[in-house]
């Protein structure tokens, strides 16, 4: 039962489900549905897919997440960054607008869903850790810039294509003179209204008498209002005849469940993008879920989240949708509207289904420029250059990883940008640890504690060099270790003992073991004894599996104080007694 | 002057060069020359190049290394593993036997020489550290197996091709029935004699009255003896007419210096193999140089070695040779014969030049099977599976990296094998640090020292959870850190203080900083104070560049003892006083 609850969290909250919770969840679902319809349509457009696919991707995934997910407030569905990644990945294997394009998008959802499931069952969630905070943050910023730039084209009524910001700008510039005046005016006004509605609508509604919380939620209807007004205007003035691009026929009805055919070539071509989408979607979703859960002291199970998102994506694929994940803005609305259980998500799915059945004919005259404006307003909040400044100030290495992610994403597109970012983070980490900080340490008077001679008032013995190497001993720094100890000894001809204080040594790999052996032999040949101190339990266990401890000329001491006291007991005790 | 000496070590030893040293170096050069001629011819064969190219690669590089190198005993020239890597790289861009093939091999020497120079000037020698001990050892073992297997073909008088052990075996098996009897007998006898001469010739020579040292050196003439005898036999019995493949015309004379034309496509195609050859050659050479230098307490400057090997390879390319590096066996002979300065290498180059001028006609009837036998005997000592057993016993991660290097090299060839090995080492390191060892620590009675509660008899306070995380805080383990602290607190409801003891924390990157912030906020919301202790200087400097220290609910203490004493002074002092 316990493990069944682990894999089906619905059994936990479903057991206590009351009529009151039901009423609350239904109310929340209405609000989220109104917000989700425009987003679903817009992100389908962003992914280069027919509008109804956006609605399809907002039904089955929500129900599946309600069954498997551990977050009470997460709302899954199409989101900006994943939609962009979908567009890029699918455009590589099919032409936009063709049935093959749709097939590939569906396959992408299924593949990344399967990968998430697999990662969940094999406990491979740690893979997501390789997307460091600066890389994911830089990636989202660059994606936001790219999406917003790309959507300027439908707002101006021109064509643009390209897999990166630079590519899009390059393809847009020569077309700027072909902008359609009616489209441009409609797009700009929508954009202005949407931006205003984010900040100005709430005070206005408060002033009109709504409570603060209601006003906050009602202000989220800005996009729906924009859709309604621009659709009416376009219909009334027949703007389609003046070159305003409209949505046209959106097939109504519910998606048909079907198992997509397996095409080995297609799947092979989509493997890498599917993995990237799975990991990026997961990281985005889990961080939203953790943030919201922390506010109510609820728990998120990251491994179960992999399974839930995997199920949601497979569900999206089987019901004709494209890749989905937990989105920030809609989850926040869900949370603030008071969603108490994931059932709110399931009811939202019902709301979307009703919309798909009844509302699609009303969308015929909806200008694509309006959807583009909705996307732009949604993504500008993703662009966060303040974080870059902070990160750069804190750590140049992290700043460099973030900058290269942003720059490479803008120039080469999402996949290259992400991979370069991960590569740069890993490389810079290895580079840093290959030249670690090394401190010569001495005893702080009055204590048994040893610290850097350059930072603290300490006592040292002329016979002894005590070194604290602030790194694990492993292959990138094994040779550095040899050089450091050789140089330290060469600089102190009087030295008879070298003590390596090892509290910072978390690993000694086979390469470093060879180096320690070499160091021990060379010091021995020079008449110098090598000691170790504060070697941690797991490291001792490992060293015992080699012959190093037998070869070691000195001893392994529990503490640095013990090591010094065993060589120069007089000095050690005098220093301890001093004030 | 100092810096001139740094870049031209010849100025250091050249200043004290005496007539006695000269006489000694010339004697050493004679011995090494006799050994180097067969090796040079054999490795040219291994690389798929005309024989004289092997001689060319043993002249200019030796002179250049004598000028720039810091090792007194290193002998550079063609070596087995690099010759194999050359053959594989060049066969990808040209057909063996064509002038384009030679051009590509020459370009490869120049490119990897330039890369080594660049790495020397930019102090990028640390790149070589990424080849961990298990990876390079596994790579050399697998290369040895591949080379020995490939050379069975000329010994049997059959054809074989393939870029990996598996490929070679696959191409050889169907041809086994075509083996040429005369070639096979000649090859097998040569092989048997060479193996015997390594072990049996020395005792025989001692028995004949030579001193131990002379016998040791004279035993190295085994290959020359084999060449002389098999050449005579082949000539006398006209074995070429019976299908024994012979070397034929080797053009005599010295190489013409020429600057190879720059072909952008060719260079682009050779970039990755050139880098791998540069790094592998450098690692092999430096480890030989360090081993020999340690025996005489001499110093090696690893950065200058990059420059010296770079110059040697560029010299090889400009004089019609192929990639070279410092070889183990010839350097050991050089060392044991008593080489006192790198001038011995320059004199060896003269010896090789004389051979190129005078001896090549004598090589006409030399059977290729003899050269193959020389190669096999040279490389079987590279195959070292005992190291694998040791490494696997010491560390499963290192063992896995070594095993995957060996297996992938055997299956996919040298380049894939090496890259997979490096990738696996890095991945396993990151994986290990993503789930670090965490110890709950307590005070050891009678000391100020804190250790793992599970390994030592320690005293703890019910109010305090003291955790020592044995890892740097960085992106692969940032989320693990959050989970660990959440779980530790959840398991101890009485806890009011969490102390993170940080002696093992060598970095806190931007991702981990975010996690620490989150941890601090969540503990604060639960009424728990977060303290840090034993944070190292460089980490404090970095944390001060963020707002974290202002947000921290507790304090940063110099020692873990101070931290506990500030919360529960009574307990800390009582424990310190206890025995």
Task: Provide an overview of this structure.
Two copies of one chain form a homodimer. Chain A has two domains: 18-158 and 180-247 and 256-424, no CATH class; 438-577, STAS domain (Transcription Regulator spoIIAA, 2-Layer Sandwich). The longest helix of chain A is centred in the middle third of the chain and has 32 residues, at 264-295. Chain A is elongated, with a radius of gyration of 30 Å. With 579 residues, chain A is mostly helical. The first copy, chain A, has helices spanning 2-7, 10-15, 19-46, 51-56, 60-68, 80-91, 99-121, 133-156, 165-172, 181-199, 201-207, 212-218, 222-236, 264-295, 302-318, 328-336, 343-358, 368-380, 385-394, 396-412, 414-434, 478-490, 510-525, 537-543, 548-551, 560-567, 569-577; strands spanning 76-77, 325-326, 438-443, 450-452, 464-469, 497-501, 529-533, 556-557. The mean pLDDT of chain A is 88. Chain A contains 27 helices and eight strands. At the A-B interface, helix 19, helix 21, helix 22, helix 23 and helix 24 of A face helix 19, helix 21, helix 22, helix 23 and helix 24 of B. Chains A, B: It is found in: Membrane. Chains A, B: It is a multi-pass membrane protein. Chains A, B: The chain crosses the membrane at residues 21-37, 43-67, 74-95, 101-122, 134-156, 176-196, 217-237, 266-294, 306-324, 344-364, 371-388, 400-428. Chains A, B: Keywords: Membrane, Transmembrane, Transmembrane helix.
């Amino acid at each position: 039962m316990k493990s069944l609850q682990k894999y089906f969290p619905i059994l936990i909250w479903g057991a206590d489900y009351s009529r009151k919770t039901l009423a609350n969840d239904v109310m929340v679902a209405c609000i989220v549905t109104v917000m989700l319809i425009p987003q679903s349509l817009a992100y389908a457009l962003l992914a280069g897919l027919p509008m109804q696919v956006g609605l399809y991707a907002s039904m089955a995934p929500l129900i599946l997440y309600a069954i498997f997910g551990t977050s009470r407030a997460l709302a899954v569905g199409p989101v900006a960054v994943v939609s962009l990644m979908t567009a890029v990945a699918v455009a590589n294997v099919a032409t936009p607008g063709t049935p093959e394009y749709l097939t590939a998008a569906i396959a992408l959802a299924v593949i990344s869903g399967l990968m998430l499931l697999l990662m969940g069952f094999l406990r491979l969630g740690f893979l997501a850790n390789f997307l460091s905070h600066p890389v994911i943050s830089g990636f989202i910023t660059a994606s936001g810039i790219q999406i917003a730039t790309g959507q300027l084209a439908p707002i101006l009524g021109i064509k643009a294509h390209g897999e990166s910001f630079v590519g899009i700008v390059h393809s847009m510039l020569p077309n700027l003179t072909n902008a359609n005046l009616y489209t441009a005016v409609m797009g700009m006004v929508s954009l202005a209204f949407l931006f205003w509605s984010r900040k100005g609508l709430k005070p206005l509604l408060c002033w009109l008498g709504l409570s603060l919380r209601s006003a906050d939620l009602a202000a989220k209807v800005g996009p729906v209002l924009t859709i309604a007004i621009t659709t009416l205007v376009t219909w009334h003035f027949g703007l389609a005849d003046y070159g305003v691009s409209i949505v046209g026929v959106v097939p109504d009805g519910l998606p048909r469940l079907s198992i997509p055919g397996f095409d080995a070539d297609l799947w092979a071509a989509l493997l890498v993008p599917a993995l990237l989408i799975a990991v990026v979607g997961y990281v985005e979703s889990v961080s939203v879920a953790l943030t919201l859960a922390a506010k109510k002291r609820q728990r998120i199970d990251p491994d179960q989240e992999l399974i839930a998102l995997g199920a949601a994506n497979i569900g999206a694929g089987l019901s004709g949708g494209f890749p989905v994940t937990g989105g920030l803005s809609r989850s926040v609305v869900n949370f603030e509207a008071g969603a108490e259980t994931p059932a709110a998500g399931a009811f939202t799915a019902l709301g979307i289904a009703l919309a798909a059945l009844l509302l699609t004919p009303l969308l015929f005259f909806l200008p694509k420029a309006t959807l583009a404006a909705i996307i732009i307003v949604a993504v500008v909040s993703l662009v966060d250059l303040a974080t870059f400044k902070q990160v750069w100030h804190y750590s140049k290495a992290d700043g460099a990883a973030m900058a290269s992610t942003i720059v490479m994403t803008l120039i080469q597109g999402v996949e290259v940008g992400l991979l370069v970012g991960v590569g740069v983070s890993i490389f810079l980490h290895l580079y840093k640890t290959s030249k670690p900080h090394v401190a010569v340490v001495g005893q702080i008077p009055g204590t048994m504690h040893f610290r850097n001679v350059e930072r603290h008032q300490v006592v040292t013995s002329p016979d002894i060099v005590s070194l604290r190497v602030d790194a694990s001993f492993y292959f990138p720094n094994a040779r550095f270790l040899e050089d450091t100890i050789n140089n330290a000894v060469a600089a102190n001809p009087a030295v008879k003992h070298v003590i390596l204080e090892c509290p910072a040594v978390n690993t000694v790999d086979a390469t470093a073991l060879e180096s320690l052996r070499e160091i021990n032999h060379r010091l021995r040949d020079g008449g110098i004894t090598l000691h170790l101190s504060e070697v941690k339990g797991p490291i001792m266990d490992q060293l015992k599996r080699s012959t190093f401890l037998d070869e070691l000329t000195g001893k392994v001491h529990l503490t640095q104080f013990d090591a010094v006291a065993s060589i120069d007991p007089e000095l050690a005790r005098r220093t301890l007694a001093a004030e």
